[in-house]
Amino acid sequence: MSVKRNLLLLILMFAFSAMAKSQNNVAVKTNLLYDAAANANLGFEVGLASHWSAELTGDFNQWTINDHKWKHWLVQPEVRYWFCERFVKSFVALHAIGGEYNVGNVPIDGKFIGSDFSKLKHNRYQGWGLGAGLAYGYALPLNRSWNMEFELGFGYIYFDYDKYNCSGCGKKIESDDHHYVGPTKLAVNLVYVF
Hints:
Blueprint: H1 2-21, E1 26-31, H2 32-36, E2 40-49, E3 52-61, E4 64-65, E5 68-82, E6 89-104, E7 111-112, E8 115-116, E9 124-141, E10 146-164, E11 172-193
Antiparallel strand pairs: 1-2, 1-11, 2-3, 3-5, 4-5, 5-6, 6-9, 7-8, 9-10, 10-11
């Protein structure tokens, strides 16, 4: 547990130090897809050089809705290379992701790239995850200060978890891990650029 927290702290310190040294454009954003799913989220992005920027986003959900539990927090630092200029048009990105979760009684069916999401119906999973990925995105300026930004990322996440009998039960069945390969970021961001 202390190794993953130290790694998350290192990622956060790197991201914040890059942002603190920046004298360039700054943007604040929210992912409308996460907002629609009742996940509180906020992102900050700063320009580093003419074609480079760094972003740090956070996501938080501590709600239980209709007896469905999907509680988590995560952070996702990212470095972007812009093909045109910062905050405009196409970019590619490298991101890390880390956080903790407590998920159960979620009615999702199907398998996707080695992950069986139907297991979330009958059991509760509690643990942490850490990973990285590559992304492509596009920023569409709406006016001088507002952008819409679209991003899709793929990568790898290592999950370490404890499995429980049901969404509300406290009896642990097992501890295990899972290696996930697939989408690691999906964003439709509303962005304000200062």
